Write a sequence for this structure.
């Protein structure tokens, strides 16, 4: 066996592996934990929310999988378009943008608790807006560069249903604005913030049982 020849063959492979590794790290979606991580003007943010997402989530490998027939049976045509085709509903013409009731917002695709009324605020955009999700682990993010903009798409990490986008122009405490489609959510009204938390705990207990 010609060891030096094998080494020479191995070297380019190692370099390629290294380059792939570096490219992978740079391609990972960044989480906008601070307002300055995305260089986006506030006025752009408000209008950017209106554009549909072009992120392809078909290869996501999410825990909840349904056939096309099952998705269409579960969702209304508008819910299907927004949640499964990364669409966007019209502002000010959706059920939850001005909803001030106390309760839990679940994913329309799989009932996972995604947002609490305690984190909802009036952003003036015409879409339900939140400062944070209930649990970072249940809300996946993808960098969305469609329409020449730098946006971060958010989706349910359990079933892959598109939810909306997150922008760095939100109020305290996070400075983030999760601009979400009502069509991707269902709402369960309860009497108090504690009752919302109980519903969330219940969901986790059922999932883990
Ligand atoms: Zn879901």
């Amino acid at each position: 066996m010609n060891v030096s020849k094998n080494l020479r063959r191995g070297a380019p492979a190692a370099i390629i592996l290294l380059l792939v590794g570096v490219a992978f790290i740079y391609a990972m979606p960044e989480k906008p934990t601070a307002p300055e991580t995305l260089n986006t003007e506030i006025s752009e943010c408000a209008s950017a929310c209106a554009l549909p997402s072009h992120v392809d989530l078909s290869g996501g490998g999410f825990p909840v999988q349904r056939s096309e027939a099952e998705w269409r049976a579960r969702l209304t045509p508008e819910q299907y378009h927004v949640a499964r085709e990364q669409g966007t509903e019209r502002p000010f013409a959706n059920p939850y943008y001005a909803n001030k009731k106390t309760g839990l917002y679940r994913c329309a695709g799989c009932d996972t608790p995604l947002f609490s009324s305690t984190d909802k605020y009036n952003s003036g955009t015409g879409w339900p807006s939140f400062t944070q999700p209930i649990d970072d682990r249940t809300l996946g993010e993808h960098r969305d560069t469609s329409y020449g903009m730098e946006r971060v798409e958010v989706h349910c990490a359990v079933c892959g249903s598109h939810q909306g986008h997150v922008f760095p122009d939100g109020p305290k405490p996070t400075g983030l604005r999760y601009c979400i489609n009502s069509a991707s959510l269902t709402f369960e009204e309860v009497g108090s913030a504690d009752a919302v938390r109980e519903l969330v705990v219940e969901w986790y207990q059922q999932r883990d049982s």
Q: What stands out?
A: Residues 97 and 127 are 5 Å apart (CA to CA).
